[in-house]
Amino acid sequence: MASLQRIRNHGALLIAIVGLAMLAFILGDFLNSGSSFFNRSRENVGVVEGQKIHYTEYEAAKDQLTEVYKIESGRTDFDEDAYSQIRNQVWNMFVMDYTLRAQAEKIGMDITPDELTELCIGENVHQLLRGRRAFMDENGQYSRETVKGLIAAIQEGSDDAAQNANLQQAKTYWLYWEKAVRISYMQEKYTALFQHLLKANSLDAEYAFNGRQHGVSADYVMQPYFSVADSLVKVSEGDIKKLYKQHKEQYKQTPNRAIKYIAFDIVPSEDDFKAAEELLVRLQDEFKTTEDVSLVVNTNSDIMYDGRDYSEETVPAQFKEFAFAKGAKAGDCTDILFEDNTYAMARIMQAGYSLPDSVELKAIAAEEGQEDQELGWFKAADLPKNIAEPALAGKRGEKFTVAMGMGEQTYEIMEIGKPTPKVKLAILAREVTPSSKTYSIIYNSAKQFVVNNNNAEALEAAAQEAGMTVVPQYNLTATTDKVGQLKASRPIVRWAFEAKEGAVSDVFECGQQFVVAALTEVNDGEYRPLNAVRAELTYEATNNAKAEYIKKELKGVESLEKAAEIMGQQIQHVEHVTLNDSRFGNAGMEPAVIGAAVAQGENVLSEPIQGNMGVFVVKTGVSYKQEGGSFDAESEKAQLASRFAYLPYQAIQLMEDKAEVTDNRANFQ
Question: Which residues pair with 400 in a beta bridge?
Fold first, then answer.
């Protein structure tokens, strides 16, 4: 009973303890079992209008567009800029797609399957598909039959591994353009809706016509703001803050960083030049006399020997005169030459023969029911060696077969170019590059610079003292791919968003440079801070103060001549000013002055008018109507509609700017 009473006395405490224990248990279980939930949220590259973009979806889209680039360009060796373009294009496509979908859903707009089919393989194929070479016939015209055949082949598949791989690549290509057509057409429907809504009415047409027909001539005098000394006016902190508040929406920003960096070029040392030259000197006799020249060259040279045939157009310029000299013969060899940081020498392996430079080929269909494919003209350098050799050595009408992956392909020579002189040349070349020792010396020098100057001010001062260029870089966002023109510099951006203002980075390797950066600005606010825009606000506030100063000087002026005398300026004339004008005589873009001049009537002297470039006083002359022409409502409406043409596209851009977008790409780059 005593124990029971003690439990009763401490009941509230026990309930709290048990409750906390149960909560800890539940949370622990949830966090363990729900870890996949949190991981999934961390794997989202972004969210657009509530639509999550998972990392795997984003990567798949990048891979897809990369394949499209390969097919479109015929290349596989993309550089850093190309991959950056692919990433940005994929992201922009996601943003446009999900933003359009969200807006289209609100107004009940969609693209039906039948519409998409018509756009892709119907009578009215979308222009995005018409421009693709992969969908054209031999005459360079878009072919629906070609597209239908491609789709049928993709759906059917193939038991042959090589063919199936090609079909998968074709499927990736087709699906990309199908999606691009859907997004593009959705955008076209949306803009067409805007264009239908943005129409001028009869009152708009009449107002525009009258605005063009009725005008006034005027004399004016203008005092530029720059003619008033800054010392004559005062600008307070309150004036600047007031302007900042007025313009604040113009200063919206995404979080960004500013840095300054110095670069240490990774260049060869004198020892590196000496080593490269000594290598060729050691190999010179062997290169001239060996029977196995390919072993010597391919073991030591930057230019492999594959028995290629050089023409006068394709041979390296420094060896042209030697290779095609009169009497040149196999075994002839140059001395060691130096050009473009490269030591090189050449040996003629075969001379005195001719071969065509180009050939027109047809690929023979491998199976019945398939059509032969005319491939067009090729130069020797554009073809793989196993195709180029039989093609250029053959005759018109001959066929030859070469191995292609796990299968074979037969080609027919349709036409062959005129033979031109050729030479086989073995080239022993060694470009001078920084050795590991040189690399280490330069790296250590950069590293020591960081150790000795561990804050932004010290780094900049030391760099200037050493005669080094300090390069500023502004507005780096979390998704910026590279810093200026620095290669492989994405790690610098990541560092800038992790470091504290004033910090100095470690040494980054950016292509052929070691780079050290200092973080000079951290801007994480929704708006650019006042100090960042103080200069432009001060300029505007100063001009406002000068306008008030000039107006005060002109107070009570009753004639244009007197105003000109006070201003120390000449009277100027402008003929036929209308509300449709954008410029006021020689004064430039002055809409406030134009509006005041037209509105004030005939023979009136204006009050001082604050304009863009200075203060104006205007004396109007006689109002008059433009001679000739009659009001045509439909013509006026058409002209106004043409002025509105950009608005639908601006609406699309505004829609994307205002969309709810969370961009997490920086976590995955």
Answer: 411
CA angle 100, 105, 106 (to 5 degrees): 105
Q: Which CATH architecture has domain 213-251+532-625?
A: Roll (3.10)
In the structure encoding, which two tokens stand for residue 46, read together? 């972004």
**pLDDT tens profile 598-652:** 888 889 999 999 999 999 999 998 777 665 567 777 777 777 777 777 777 777 7
Mean pLDDT of 124-129: 90
pTM of the prediction?
0.72
Query: Can you spell out the DSSP letters for 617-659?
Result: EEEEEEEEE-SS----HHHHHHHHHHHTTTHHHHHHHHHHHHS
Q: Looking at 448-577, which runs of residues are DSSP E strands? A: 471-477, 508-510, 513-523, 572-577
As a whole number of angstroms, the distance between CA 610 and CA 590 comes to 9
Q: What is the pLDDT of residue 155?
A: 86
Predicted confidence at residue 2, as pLDDT, reads: 36
Instruction: Tell which CATH classification among 3.10.50, 2.60.40, 3.40.1710, 2.150.10 matches the domain 256-267+435-524.
Output: 3.10.50
Q: What is the average pLDDT score of the chain?
A: 87
**Residues in the chain, overall count:** 669
- Distance, in Å, from the CA atom of 134 to the CA atom of 170, rounded to the nearest integer, reads 10
**Residue ranges of the domains in the chain?**
2-33, 47-197, 213-251+532-625, 256-267+435-524, 270-431
524: tokens are: 């994480």
pLDDT higher than 50, residue 17: no
> Do 213-251+532-625 and 256-267+435-524 show the same overall fold?
yes
Can you tell me the mean pLDDT for 409-438? 94
Buried b vs exposed e over 251-264: b needs ≥16 C-beta within 10 Å? Answer: beeeebbbbbbbbb
